[in-house]
UniProtKB/TrEMBL annotation:
<dbReference type="InterPro" id="IPR000436">
    <property type="entry name" value="Sushi_SCR_CCP_dom"/>
</dbReference>
<dbReference type="InterPro" id="IPR001304">
    <property type="entry name" value="C-type_lectin-like"/>
</dbReference>
<dbReference type="Pfam" id="PF00084">
    <property type="entry name" value="Sushi"/>
</dbReference>
<feature type="domain" description="C-type lectin">
    <location>
        <begin position="132"/>
        <end position="240"/>
    </location>
</feature>
<dbReference type="InterPro" id="IPR050828">
    <property type="entry name" value="C-type_lectin/matrix_domain"/>
</dbReference>
<feature type="domain" description="Sushi">
    <location>
        <begin position="63"/>
        <end position="120"/>
    </location>
</feature>
<feature type="disulfide bond">
    <location>
        <begin position="91"/>
        <end position="118"/>
    </location>
</feature>
<keyword id="KW-0472">Membrane</keyword>
<keyword id="KW-1015">Disulfide bond</keyword>
<keyword id="KW-0812">Transmembrane</keyword>
<keyword id="KW-1133">Transmembrane helix</keyword>
<dbReference type="InterPro" id="IPR016186">
    <property type="entry name" value="C-type_lectin-like/link_sf"/>
</dbReference>
<protein>
    <recommendedName>
        <fullName>C-type lectin domain-containing protein</fullName>
    </recommendedName>
</protein>
<dbReference type="InterPro" id="IPR016187">
    <property type="entry name" value="CTDL_fold"/>
</dbReference>
<keyword id="KW-0732">Signal</keyword>
<feature type="transmembrane region" description="Helical">
    <location>
        <begin position="29"/>
        <end position="46"/>
    </location>
</feature>
<dbReference type="Pfam" id="PF00059">
    <property type="entry name" value="Lectin_C"/>
</dbReference>
Length: 261
C-alpha cells in the first residue's frame, strides 16, 4: 500500500522500504492531498467569483449619450453614441466652420458643449451681410418673398427673420434698409395663437419691453405677421401687423438675423 502511494506522488521520497518510514510517507501523502484540495478549492472559488463579476458587469447597460442639442445651422454627424464616441460638426454650403469640429460623448451620458458656429461666406448675401450690437444680419433686397417663404429662406441660411429688441437696433435696421432702397420689410414678429405676438426666440413685445406699432389695435388673427416701414416712401418708421391672407399673398423684402453659433 505504501509503495503504491509513493508511486502516485513522486515528490515524496523516492523509495520508502521500511514499515516505520511507511507511516511517515502516509502522513506526507495526506498533507500533500490536503494542500492539493485546498488549492483546487481556491482555484474554483476564484473562477466562480470571476465569472459572477463578468456576468454582473455584462448585465449592466452601457452608458450612451442622449440626442445632441438642436442646432438648425450646424450639421451634426452622430454614429456611435457610447462613451468616448466622437460626433463631427460641419456647416451648410456657403458657410465656414469656426471653432471645434467635433463633440465627444461623456461619462455623464451627455455630449460635450458645442464650441463652433457657421460664418456666412460672400455668396450668402454678399455685401448685404452686416453687423450691429453683436448680431449679424442679411439684408435681403435682391429678392422678394411672402412671409412663410421669407422664414424658410432665413432658416436655410442659419438664421431667422430679424428680432428687434430695442430702439437702437430698430433705428439701425430702418436706416440700413432705407440706404438699400427697401421701403418695407418682413420682421420676425407674428401671432401664432391670434391673441399675442411672438418673436422666433419665444420673446414677446412684453418680455422685450419694446415695440414700434403705430396703431395699438393690432391684427389679432392667427398667423398675423408684421411688416416694418422705414420712411423710405414718406411713411413714418413703424411696424404694422397684417392678417394671414395678406402675409401669404404679398411678397416683400426682408431681413434675416444669423445665429450666433
Amino acid at each position: 500500500m505504501c509503495i503504491k502511494i509513493l508511486k502516485l506522488f513522486p515528490k515524496i521520497p523516492d523509495i520508502i522500504e521500511c514499515e516505520n518510514c511507511c507511516k511517515e510517507a502516509k502522513m506526507k501523502f495526506l498533507l500533500v492531498a490536503v494542500v492539493l484540495m485546498l488549492e483546487l478549492v481556491c482555484v474554483l472559488s476564484i473562477q466562480r467569483k470571476t465569472k459572477n463579476c463578468k456576468r454582473k458587469h455584462s448585465d449592466q447597460p452601457k452608458v450612451q449619450c442622449n440626442q445632441t442639442e438642436t442646432n438648425t445651422c450646424l450639421n451634426i454627424d452622430v454614429g456611435d453614441k457610447t462613451v468616448g464616441a466622437v460626433a463631427r460638426l460641419s456647416c451648410p454650403d456657403g458657410f465656414n466652420l469656426i471653432g471645434d469640429d467635433n463633440i465627444v460623448c461623456l461619462d455623464s451620458g451627455n455630449w460635450s458643449e458645442i464650441n463652433a458656429k457657421c460664418d456666412p461666406g460672400d455668396e450668402i448675401g454678399g455685401i448685404n451681410v452686416q453687423s450691429f450690437g453683436g448680431s449679424r444680419y442679411v439684408f435681403v433686397n435682391f429678392t422678394q418673398k411672402n412671409y412663410s417663404e421669407a422664414e424658410a429662406y432665413c432658416s436655410d441660411i442659419c438664421g431667422s427673420l430679424v428680432e428687434i429688441n430695442n430702439k437702437e437696433e430698430d433705428d439701425y435696421l430702418m436706416a440700413t434698409t432705407q440706404s438699400l432702397n427697401v421701403a418695407s420689410f418682413w420682421i420676425g414678429l407674428k401671432s401664432n395663437d391670434g391673441s399675442s405676438f411672438e418673436w422666433p426666440s419665444g420673446n414677446t413685445i412684453i418680455t422685450n419691453m419694446y415695440e414700434n406699432f403705430e396703431d395699438q389695435t393690432y391684427a389679432k388673427d392667427k398667423g398675423s405677421c408684421v411688416l416694418a416701414y422705414n420712411n423710405h416712401d414718406g411713411n413714418s418708421r413703424r411696424w404694422e401687423p397684417f392678417v394671414k391672407e395678406f402675409c401669404d399673398e404679398n411678397k416683400k423684402h426682408f431681413v434675416c438675423e444669423l445665429m450666433s453659433g
